[in-house]
Amino acid sequence: MAGKQYARDGKTGKMKFNDFALGNMTTSYTMGSVVTGATTLTGYETDAINPGQSMVDAPINIKGSPQKRSWKYMGMINNLTALKQSSDVYMFKTAIKIGEGEYRNNQL
What we know:
Layout: E1 4-8, E2 15-19, H1 23-26, H2 32-45, E3 54-57, E4 75-78, H3 79-85, H4 88-98
Antiparallel strand pairs: 1-2, 3-4
Helix pairs in contact: 2-4
């Protein structure tokens, strides 16, 4: 909700909405977690991946590019774990599949 902040009232202890219009400009949030949901949904809709599908979350190496990796090594994970843990690697591999590509280590 733009311009509002849900917080505990210091006097009553109850939760309430406060005006926070400046928060639209003074605070920012990483959109990565939103993108993971959209990537997964697009993967389903294009038949690039299936619900429950597992992939190995390990660093991705594309020749001439910096290494792509998740915030931690997760090993074999399914789509739900990828969403819960915000796996960048699962999303990179899904995007490659959406584009009908195939990932091969250190390939262009």
